[in-house]
Design a protein that fits this description.
- This is ATPase AAA.
- Keywords: ATP-binding, Nucleotide-binding.
- InterPro entries: AAA+_ATPase, AAA_lid_NorR, FHA_dom, P-loop_NTPase, Sigma_54_int, Sigma_54_int_dom_ATP-bd_1, SMAD_FHA_dom_sf.
- The protein is α/β, with parallel strands linked by helices and about 475 residues long.
- The protein has four domains: about 5-105, Tumour Suppressor Smad4, CATH 2.60.200.20; about 140-300, Rossmann fold; about 305-380, Helicase, Ruva Protein, domain 3, CATH 1.10.8.60; about 430-470.
- About 30% of the residues lie in helices and about 20% in strands.
- The chain has 17 helices and 21 strands.
- Helix 2 (about 140-150) packs parallel to helix 3 (about 165-180), helix 9 (about 310-320) packs across helix 11 (about 345-360) and helix 16 packs across helix 17 (about 455-460).
- The chain is elongated, with a radius of gyration of 27 Å.
Length: about 475
């Protein structure tokens, strides 16, 4: 019997051969390349029986079954680990996240955007009810579905979420679905000085104040028969909040300097990253205005909580910026998925825009990651001392992870550690010069090359060098 917990595929080079998600029975599941495994991981970098996930003592736990390429949990090689919601698991070249619930719902959405009626059947195009603006899988489409249901109503909508999560995109999609004849107008309440926000929203008559040499329509009247998005509504001054509330209640706008109100037909969408409950308690946001705006509210999850969308976002953003041929590499995706994106989709878009501007190859690779991501990946593939003791023969164990017969999880880590391509070895002269410069400090040489110390020690042995000779 399924518990609702499961693993969701975040990326694999051959993702079409995977189910988008796998539910976990209480009794647990074995993951591996063998078709007889409970969860088949169809990649040659996975062992036949690679890892096991089961529930023990009320907690879900991950166990490595001793395969050649090891099992990674949140970027560390482990023998076993307790799983928490959204933890990252890597089996060979397949990267998953663990979810505590709703695994079956994720199973309908493939990472490239294909919708699957039956997750075990071939993918089919998305149904017509899906969107072109909103990119993403289960979480994004569930929220989009909530908006679509009320799109043609007059309900005001409040969109909450961290900066960069895509609140304006959801507002644009809601306006498209609404069928309203007027335009979508957007005002950033945080960007307009408090003294000017009234004139921006309500407009003014000529002569209303010094410098008002002509009539100004104002954003509310410009949105007549359309939609007004009040972005960052949490930053609107209290005085303007009171006047906005009257407009929503009366559906009338009185421009500055006018004596008579004018009728206005506007659907209101408000968005903010601020905690409106806390602002109300502090007296900085009106409770009656909140009630009017909150006829329906949705909260957009941050990108770190919906990493199953990262691949489709990369492709969609590359297309938006004129590079529809974009092909993310395995190393590139490993770097992105290990990153928590504090600035959300906006941060990912900036990265894609930089790559598109350089106009190099079609592939997004290690050099296209930000410095912050590359720095974080230097510790990717470390061995967790808390979860397992050091192997008795560390050199043998590490070499097994880098076996030439098959690419490994370690290869993806090494590809992200500096300027050397995967498996590339510096020539003897370069390595000798670095050892001289660093006086035999292997850790310093490793930092220079962007590799770990174990790899540098192997190269030293390959060239029959003695570290002590450089100290």
């Amino acid at each position: 019997m399924s518990s609702g917990a499961g693993i969701v595929l975040l990326y694999a080079p051959n993702y079409e051969q995977f189910r988008p998600a796998y539910a976990l029975p209480e009794s647990g599941s074995v993951l591996g390349r063998d078709p007889s495994a409970d969860i088949c991981v169809p990649t040659r970098t996975a062992s036949r029986l690679h890892a096991r996930i089961e529930r023990r003592g009320g907690a879900w736990q991950l166990f490595d079954l001793g395969g050649r390429n090891g099992t990674l949990h949140n970027g560390e090689f482990v023998a076993e680990a307790v799983l928490a919601h959204l933890d990252e698991i890597r089996i060979g070249d397949a990267i998953f996240k663990f979810v505590e619930s709703d695994a079956e719902s994720y199973a309908h959405y493939r990472i490239d955007g294909a919708y699957l009626d039956d997750p075990d059947a071939p993918a089919r195009p998305r149904p017509r009810a899906s969107t072109s603006r909103i990119v993403g899988g289960y979480q994004s489409q569930r929220l989009a579905g909530s908006l679509r249901e009320i799109a043609r109503s007059e309900l005001s909508v409040l969109i909450l979420g961290e900066s960069g999560t895509g609140k304006e995109i959801f507002a644009e999609q809601l306006h498209d679905w609404s069928g309203r004849r007027g335009p979508l107008q957007v005002v950033n309440c945080a960007a307009i000085p408090a003294a000017l926000i009234e004139g921006e929203l309500f407009g003014h008559r000529r002569g209303a104040f010094s410098g008002a040499d002509r009539d100004r329509v104002g954003i509310l009247r410009a949105a007549h028969q359309g939609t007004l998005l009040l972005d960052e509504i949490g930053d609107m001054p209290l005085e303007a909040q009171a006047k906005l509330l009257r407009v929503i209640q009366s559906k009338e706008v009185t421009p500055l300097g006018a004596s008579q109100p004018e009728q206005v037909d506007v659907r209101i969408i408000a968005a903010t990253h601020r905690d409106l409950d806390a602002l109300q308690q502090a007296g900085a946001f009106r409770a009656d205005l909140f009630a009017r705006l909150n006829e329906l509210s949705i909260t957009l999850p941050p990108l770190r909580e919906r990493k199953e969308d990262v691949f489709s976002l990369c492709v969609a953003l590359a297309r938006r910026h004129g590079r529809p041929e974009a092909r993310p590499s395995m190393a590139f995706m490993a770097g992105l998925l290990h990153h928590d994106f504090p600035y959300n989709v906006r941060e990912l878009e900036a990265l894609i825009k930089r790559w598109a501007a350089r106009a190099r190859s079609d592939e997004l690779d290690v050099e296209d990651l930000s410095d912050e991501i590359r720095d974080r990946m230097r510790s990717y593939g470390a061995r967790s001392s808390a979860s397992q003791p050091p192997p008795p023969d560390e050199a043998r164990a590490t070499l097994a992870l880098e076996d030439e017969a098959a690419p490994s999880a370690r290869e993806g880590a090494d590809a992200l550690r500096g300027t050397l391509p995967p498996r590339a070895c510096p020539d003897e002269k370069v390595l000798r010069e670095l050892l001289v410069q660093q006086r035999g400090n292997v850790a310093a040489v490793a930092r220079e090359l962007g590799r770990d110390r174990a790899q540098v020690h192997r190269w030293i042995r390959r060239y029959n060098m003695n570290v002590d000779d450089f100290r």
